[in-house]
Amino acid sequence: MTAIDCAGRTVLITGAGSGLGRSMALALAAAGAEVVAAVRRPETGVSVVEEITAAGGSAIWLECDVRVQEHISAAVAATVEHFGKLDVMIHNATGPASAEIATLELLDEDFWEDIAGHNLRAAFRFARAAHPHLKRTQGTMILLTSGIGVEGKAIQPEYGAAKAGIRALTKSLAAEWGPDGINVNCLSPAGMTPAYERVFEQDPGWAEHIRQTVPLGRVGDPMTDIAPVVVFMASSACQFITGQTITATGGRTMLL
Amino acid sequence: MADTYALTGADGPIGRLIAESLGSTLTLEGLDDSALVSRASVEDGLSGLGRLGGVIHGFVPEAVTGSTDIAETSDAEWDERCELVIRSTINVLQGAYTALKDTGGVVIVTLPTVGLSGQRHFAAYAAACEAQRTLVKGAARAWGAVGIRVHSVVFGPELLGGEIAEIAPKESLLLERALPDHPVDSWGGDIASAIEFLVGPGAEGLTGTTVSVDSGRWMPL
Fold this sequence. Notes:
A: seven-stranded parallel sheet, globular, B: Rossmann fold, 16% strand
């Protein structure tokens, strides 16, 4: 049986400085991966790398605004330069507009630019930049989607559209890159982030809503519920799975 | 006087089929494709069409029919094959909302099956199509309360012409057509029939649906 670990795998992960991305980075490193933490704010990069190295892991951080092509190219190049290869590319970062709520008729073109730039366009650009390196290692690409990208949502329509686009991009890349030995999958998580915590603070009824609509009755813990799924997806144990959306939502989204 | 239905992409492959098949059934007015670049221009175009029953988005930019692998795709190609498609759809949906928010109506977005299945060599457009379909769902959830119903109608990529018509059916991840003898020539009429149903009284309880007019290839549920 193939072990679920990431020993010796080099992982570049965006948005690794906080929220779910930070938990993913910590768990991947604990599973043996060499981690490149691409972060927007340097202090978060320093912090996550300190935590990984203190635990005996291997990691570097670099500053990356995922809306900027030059940053994307530089992040991939720095990964290969430092660790000699790229095995797993994870685009997890998103932007502030992702958490804003408004129905479609209220949104302007700048809003789409923010949503696309952080999510769908960045996914495309990271895929393009990572492809030759993933082909060399027969590696893995992981993109982040959302249940909103499956069901649509009245108050996050463009975020849903971008995340749906990422699902289709995942399927297309899985088909396109399968002959290169690269597998490509999506993770759809529902984990407790700082933004989600604010929702709980602001809306006393939200906890009851979660209990009623999520079969497991809670939002996922980033470290114990979400990160292990990413470790599996980044490991060689997942190499025959491609083009899929893996949902870690406590049963909130049931796709099939 | 019958309601008018605005049709985008009336000179394109899908809009033309819709116009040919529905022209005698519905009052259709083409919306100039150049209006799709902004919400304001869509609203201007729709405001001149009289009593509006709905909007049918048949616009498909010609660029999407060309193949390109993601590793070789330029930013400009990504924009014209993906984000232009999404932005146009946002503009049409927003313009339709302005035109229909006081009277209600139906908005239908047409798109090929490539987004449902994913499609090698056409990944940018596949991403756009699935984004379009999820915009439809979000709009349907938001605007049902003001009487606006929003749907997707999907069709086989054979209808688009160009490389996508030639390559996508052969390299699709979908299974073979369940109705292999149903001629492609009749698919335009099939799309029109689906639209006619969705804008009619029999579909007043439906919104946010995806009707697949593809001879039975995509069966997700």
